[in-house]
User: What shape does this take?
Amino acid sequence: MTSPTLSCAGVRRRLLEGDAAERRALTPHLTQCPDCARLAEAVDDVDLELHGALASVVDRPLFPPTPPRRFSMSTPAIVLAIAASLALALTPVLPDLGVRTGAEVDFAVLDGTQRIPAQALSAADWADRRDQLYQLWEVASAEAPVERRFALAVELGRTAALASEPVPPFFEGRENVFYRTARALDDAEGGRLVAAIGDPALAAAVSGRDPASPVAVGFMEEVDAVSGIPWNALTEDDWADRAERLLEGYRTHRDQLSQKQLMVALAQMGRSAENANQGVPPFYGPVPGHEGGPAVNRAWYAAAMLEMAQPELVEKVSDLDVRASILQVVRMVEQGRLPAGSYRDVFVE
Amino acid sequence: MPPPSPIAVDSLASRAARGEPDAIEQLIVRWSGAIRRWTLASLGDVARADDAAQDAVERLLRGLPSYDPARPFEPWLRRIVRNAATDQHRKRARRREDGPVELLVASDPAHALDLADGARRALAAFAHLSERQREVLLAVDHDGRSVADTAAALGVTAGTVRSLLCKGRRAVRLRLLAHDPELASLLEDR
Assistant: This one.
């Protein structure tokens, strides 16, 4: 059966794909066609079922209603914080018991403080934590491994920020001195220390990077656009232009980009240079500190250095051929055919 | 229900970022629905969406002190939720526990919901949609947001949203209607 304008097939298609307004527009046909009317009713039923099911899932509160609390610290964090405080208080007597050294006890305080959520303490309490950690920094940090010194500097920076007192020696003007110190330690380690921070917000605060800034996002959109271009869609000269543009953007924005963004950008820059097929600097040549060595794709070498600092970062690169090329450079470094270094030393102007 | 107005939310977020406990509680209550919708759209199945939503709230609490009130809150929160959902994806891949989505919706006692069979079937059908289809169905059909708003939020054109809506509705309705042989034959006739 048909209405003046629609066949049953057309009505049924619109019933399957349309919304309530579309359904109303079909009423003239539905009043004349029992089969289509039956289908319309069934569609209404399944819509109602789906709507009810979704509501039962998404309308649940994430936390049961609770009265406002002064602290929202989790129980394990409270236990750790108390344990850490006790450890600090007992420091003068514990060494005599031969249980742990003073420095070890103090680093236990660092571990405990790291687990305390930001909102769990008042600014004054954070200032106390900061001062305790600063004593540890002065007494014990010099002999500690770089990972410990970095962790301590990060935590000093965090507690200083949470204490909301921009005072020396924790701040110089508006600059957080210990985040700067942590950054310097990270630079010396090729970026692997910041990359290992689990909390993205803390990593951003320490590194001073802002991967979500409009300029960084704009540059990554350009990188994404290049990644979607098939190799044979541009001439070699056009690929060379792309490589130049990516290099310019990379030099401008690299201090704002996350490790993941850096990896993806370097991967695409290396691919563009490869497709340009020109084999000349700045994209090809010996790597820094190995001037007499073989010429390599420098963007992929820089990407390989990121991968070595943060294993599996290369999985962010979706192009499997490019990924394999970067891993090949990693193997060359591991075999001693290329020197290890920092991505920061590549493409220095 | 659409998300609260941006100005009111951003003001609340600013207070929460300063550590005001009441503001933190209110913020979570007001954004619970949105966080659940986003994780469900991203992951498809209820159990993992629940885990990702709770994880997202914990990340939100950790990240609030670094939230910049000069920026809109919703995109910032969306990023947090997306990261939490991505980690759930990775956990799934690591555990190699890919199985029929119907089982994941229906069988996990830790996330058991008191749902009738029909509702479970509906959620399973919804889980079979693509992520984008789930997003637009939740935004437009469930929350009542306009096509234009949804397009802006997802960074796609209104035409794309309409297309996703048509395909998503069709897929989920066909899957649910297929349980009735008479209806299935009607649809074959079309």
The beta strands of chain A are 171-172, 175-176, 284-285, 296-297. The CA atoms of residues 115 and 310 of chain A lie 23 Å apart.
